[in-house]
Design brief:
Layout (H helix, E strand, L loop, with lengths): L36 E10 L1 H12 L8 E4 L10 E8 L6 H9 L8 E6 L10 E8 L5 E7 L30 H6 L2 H4 L9 E6 L12 E6 L12 H10 L13 E6 L9 H13 L4 E4 L9 H12 L3 E5 L20 E6 L29 E4 L3 E4 L5 E4 L2 H16 L4 H7 L2 H10 L9 H4 L6 H9 L5 E4 L2 E3 L21 E9 L5 E11 L7 E7 L7 E10 L8 E14 L5 E14 L8 E5 L35 H9 L3 E5 L13 E5 L7 H14 L2 E5 L5 H6 L2 E3 L4 E3 L8 H8 L5 E12 L5 E13 L3 E12 L2 E16 L2 E6 L15 H13 L9 E3 L3 E2 L18 H4 L20 E3 L40 E3 L18 H41 L1
Helix pairs in contact: 5-8, 6-7, 10-12
Length: about 1000
């Protein structure tokens, strides 16, 4: 049924499109309208006419009166209440803040307005960037100035990859192929009489033609764009619908009898706006869709109107599948909304069962820097050379995670149709379907959890799970075996030990009982073998599970006295949740997660490295420009700069060389420098607290800490040139800093007498360890202290008249300060695996050896500076325009050591031990039991420390019974057993002595009284 052709322009909010056409050259985005529009969100749903009248009444006699108008949206959603409106401003000075604060003045509880956001548009060039001029480097060379298109950022195309380069090579499939159904085996379900009947499937895409010959059950077509058509002018919507419900025997879909509802939210120019999605989402809820597929994605998980609406959609019970993104093989590239807990995020594999090279990977980045990301995608399936319906009929092959997403959507529809209609409201929801999919999945043998999530889709396996399913909760993953490589990378590659930063893992709680729930018991840690009694396990978790999900963050530490222990610890994390079902009954369910981890003796100081994660800022919310100015496909620094995301290859190199890399997610005041050989600060954009600046200098000079800083380019003119005006949001996008925050780093280095000069240098570096690599847009050195060493590299120069004489640029500085050493290098691109063209990992290893092993071979080929180098005067300044306070965690928050830091820096002690419950499982037979008494030194001291240790009962039951860590601490005097005994002896001795003294005094007092009586008688 055709309906809802939208004639009037309906809003301008960007939704990142992960679509590109695979027919020839991808079409370019072109501007659609020049306008300034804003989304105004309301606290409740009302008819559009009522809200329009309300807004005009609020704007009457304000500075916005006559400058802002309401835009009517004439689409199918108009007959239902709405929770947002679109406003258009005719004055450049009137932006979202001005409208909200200066005109609507909604600071009282009675105001219906919730907030105002720019309504952004995406106008696409290939790979999401446009050339807007040139940037002149220090050498005189020019590189293209790329800016993102205005609005919410998009990432690489999720549509149009041809599969070239995948395992097995590119194959011609133009004649169609049944390989998808042959491998996924939906016939197992078809033969039971189920094929999607009764399920309403919403396809958010480019539409579909009327009476498409290969898609039979098209119940409704709707258009949400400004183009007056319901048809598909690109072919992507037709392809997606065919993968889900196609009936062409040469390229059959998975649920051929599902009811298809197409939501045309993309134009033929591949333009889309958030307000179109908001209306379409509201209509999907009003018409009670069962499943939605979104083959879109982008890095902006802070686009509140879109993200909040997605959660509202899923909270209504609609199951949503979405592509995880095509930014692989780079880590830290999870796309939104697939990275949300309430959405089924889908990654891609090849028909050979291998991880597709284009599939995004590397944990979510919402939680960084204070926490640790979640494992996504949720599920993998075929996405390379998959066959679906062509625009007018017939078959075509496409690749990408936007192909994988409808494959899973088709499987969801097929599985959902097997549930009897009278039971669907009780069983079918976003959490239960995700549980069914991942519990029936098959693990890929050569991929880790941050690449494959919970494994590859198995329709047959999930069908078996569904047949016995009852509403319940589950923890994902159900087993956290951190000794299992490669799946448990990076944890399996580095065992844990005493005195280390905590191992952090962010698990997901899925609540199949209801949209809302709360944890009523636990989380609790129950050791399964004696080695597990040497662990301190703590938790942070969601106060409320909504929608359908929550998190439980696990912090694992080894008790201090186990510094020389080696073994595998095994135990179980358990929790219970209460939730209201769709029928209103209160349900309770428990779930557990098995945990295994290897414990080793604490390594020597020289092998322990500490990575400063706290001082990295990412997009969103900040506009941090790319580190390599030559890169044209990634204009933002959005990969989190974490050792387990875009620096993962460097992490692997350090582990292969025997180093242990711990991650500091709190300020630099929250670690003991005497325990680490090197502190690594790589590509930092954050400011530093004064306390950090003072401590780092002291740590180097007095505690012998090695300091390694890898900076990046910084040039005020380049930063200014990266500024661009967004015509849709009517705002300037301004980079808050350069590739690294050089002024902040110079503040940190002030006490060491060193500084960076900034710049954007590009040149070959012939390192003193005989390695050669290229500096791609790095900073030079401005100053080094007395008795330092400098490495100069030759930079070719180019002027208006052509080539000029090359100049020598100081790129590396080595120096000593008191008991410690430090090394400064001006570029981090050679360590970053995201867009690296030249590796310097061996060079970094040489620097570490210089810092911790006193290896002097590095300085032999460098220039000695006995009287120091350069000057601390006229150092780079911060940009005057930078609104750093809006994006800097340091400037917004007082200094504090967080739950990710050592307990002593949180003023916490190790947890109280409880006797094990009677049903505690015995130690694993595969792991020999090591008596705790054998681990205790005879003198009651930890060999690695002078502090007394604790002797505990065995086995122990360590538990967290409340949200507050303070409620679960040891009493101050119960930790130190030896000191407690000494105190007991002293107390006992003092009590005896006091009793004797009291007796003597009483006797003296009695004798004195007797003498007085005798005198009186006389």
């Amino acid at each position: 049924m055709a309906a809802g052709i939208l004639v009037e322009w309906g809003g301008l909010a960007l939704i990142t499109v992960a679509i590109a056409v695979a027919l020839g050259q991808a079409p370019k985005w072109s501007p659609v309208l020049e306008s300034t529009r804003y989304i105004v969100r309301f606290k409740e749903y009302r008819q559009q006419e009522f809200l329009e009248k309300y807004i005009y009444e609020r704007l009457y006699m304000t500075p916005c009166d006559g400058k802002v108008r309401w835009i009517a949206r004439n689409n199918l959603a108009n007959k239902f209440p709405t929770d947002f409106g679109v406003l258009e401003s005719v004055d450049e000075a009137v932006d979202e803040r001005y409208i909200l604060d200066g005109c609507l003045s909604c600071h009282d509880d009675e105001c219906l307005v919730k907030d105002v956001h720019p309504d952004r548009a995406l106008l696409r060039e290939p790979r999401g960037a446009v050339v807007t001029g040139d940037i002149v480097l220090d050498s005189g060379e020019t590189v293209p100035h790329l800016s993102t298109q205005p609005g919410r950022m998009r990432t690489k195309s999720s549509f149009g990859l041809d599969g070239a380069g995948e395992t097995g090579g590119r194959r011609s499939l133009l004649g169609g192929s049944t390989e998808l159904v042959d491998r996924l085996k939906p016939r197992v379900v078809w033969e039971k009489g189920f094929s999607g009947t009764g399920i309403k499937m919403g396809v958010f895409d480019t539409g579909i033609k009327e009476n498409h010959p290969d898609v039979e059950h098209i119940d409704e077509r709707s258009n949400w764009t400004h183009e007056p058509t319901l048809a598909d002018g690109l072919g992507h919507g037709s392809f997606v619908a065919g993968v889900i419900a196609g009936k062409n025997p040469k390229c059959p879909g998975l649920a051929p009898n599902v009811s298809i509802y197409t939501f045309r939210v993309f134009t033929n120019d591949q333009v889309s706006f958030t307000s179109w999605f908001l209306d379409a989402f509201n209509y999907a809820m009003a018409t009670e869709m069962d499943v939605l597929n979104l083959s879109i994605g982008g890095p902006d998980f802070m686009d509140a109107p879109f993200v909040d609406k997605v959660m509202e959609v899923t909270s209504s019970g609609i199951i949503m599948t979405s592509a995880i993104g095509n930014d692989g093989p780079t880590y830290g590239t999870m796309n939104n909304p697939a990275d949300q807990n309430d959405v089924i995020g889908v990654g891609g594999i090849t028909y050979q069962g291998e991880l597709a090279g284009f599939s995004s990977r590397g944990m979510t980045t919402w939680e960084i820097p204070l926490g640790y990301g979640r494992a996504k995608p949720d599920i993998m399936t075929y996405g390379s050379n998959v066959q679906g319906s062509s625009i007018g009929g017939g078959c075509r092959g496409l690749s990408g995670t936007s192909v994988s997403s409808p494959v899973v959507a088709g499987a969801v529809c097929l599985l959902a149709s097997t549930i009897p209609k009278d039971k669907r409201s009780r069983i079918l929801n976003p959490a239960s379907m995700k549980q069914i999919l991942i519990e029936g999945a098959s693990r890929l043998p050569h991929a880790n959890m941050f690449e494959q999530g919970q494994g590859s889709l198995s329709i047959e396996g999930s069908y078996k799970v569904l047949k016995d399913y009852t509403p319940r909760i589950s923890i994902v993953p159900a087993e956290l075996d951190l000794t299992d490589c490669p799946y448990a990378w990076p944890f399996c590659s580095q065992p844990i030990y005493a005195d280390a930063m905590p191992l952090m893992f962010n698990a997901t709680i899925l609540n199949g009982m209801g949209v809302d729930g709360r944890v009523v018991q636990g989380p609790e840690w129950a050791p399964s073998n004696e080695a597990a009694n040497m662990l301190d396990v703590r938790f942070e978790y969601s106060d409320q599970l909504w929608p359908w999900s929550g998190y439980v963050a696990v912090f694992v530490r080894v008790l201090p006295w186990a510094a020389n222990f080696s073994g595998k610890a095994e135990g179980t994390v358990t929790l219970a949740v209460e939730s209201s079902s769709s029928a209103g009954e209160v349900l309770r369910s428990s779930a557990s997660m098995a945990l295994k981890v290897n414990i080793i003796p604490t390594p020597s100081r020289s092998k322990r490295l500490l990575w400063d994660q706290f001082h990295s800022i990412k997009y969103p919310p900040a506009y941090i420009p790319r580190d390599d100015l030559n890169v044209q496909n990634d204009i933002l620094d959005w990969h989190a700069d974490h050792p387990h995301t875009n620096f993962h290859t460097f992490y692997d190199t350090l582990r292969r060389e025997g180093y242990f890399l711990e991650i500091l997610n709190s300020p630099l005041t929250c670690f003991n420098a005497s325990k680490y050989g090197v502190l690594m600060i790589v590509d930092s954009e954050e400011e530093f607290y004064q306390e950090e600046i003072h401590k780092v200098s002291k740590d180097v000079a007095e505690h012998g800490l090695g300091l390694l800083i890898a900076a990046d380019w910084y040039d005020l003119e380049t930063i200014h040139k990266m500024r661009f005006y967004d015509d849709n949001t009517r705002s300037w996008w301004e980079a808050v800093t350069g590739g690294a925050n050089i002024p902040a780093l110079n503040d940190l280095l002030q006490g060491l007498g060193a500084a960076f000069a900034g710049g954007s240098h590009q040149m070959k570096v012939f390192a003193p360890d005989d390695t050669t690599f290229t500096m791609y847009h790095g900073s030079s050195l401005a100053a080094m202290p007395n008795d330092s060493y400098i490495l100069f590299s030759e930079e070719s120069m180019k002027g208006k008249q052509g080539k000029m004489a090359p100049r020598q640029v100081p790129v590396l500085g080595l120096a000593s300060k008191g008991a410690g050493r430090f090394a400064l290098y001006g570029d981090s691109n050679c360590l970053d695996s995201a867009n690296r063209k030249s590796s310097c990992e061996e060079f970094a290893l040489s620097l570490i050896k210089y810092l911790v092993d006193n290896d002097e071979s590095m300085v032999e080929a460098m220039t000695h500076q006995p009287d120091g180098f350069g000057s601390m005067e006229n150092l780079p300044l911060r940009p005057l325009h930078a609104k750093y306070s809006e994006v800097s965690f340091v400037l917004q928050n007082p200094i504090k050591c967080y739950s990710n830091s050592p307990l002593e820096y949180q003023n916490l002690e190790y947890q109280r031990a409880k006797p094990a419950p009677p049903d505690l499982p015995p130690p694993s037979e595969s792991q020999p039991v090591i008596p705790m008494s054998s681990m205790l030194p005879s003198n009651g001291k930890n060999p690695a420390d002078d502090e007394p240790i604790a002797v505990t009962q065995s086995p122990l039951y360590l538990t967290n019974g409340s949200h507050s860590f303070e409620d679960r601490l040891l009493d101050e005097e119960s930790w130190d057993w030896k000191a407690s005994k000494d105190r007991a002896r002293i107390t006992s001795g003092f009590a005896g002595f006091a009793a004797i003294m009291v007796a003597i005094l009483f006797l003296m007092y009695t004798l004195r009284r007797c003498r007085k009586k005798r005198r009186t008688k006389r």
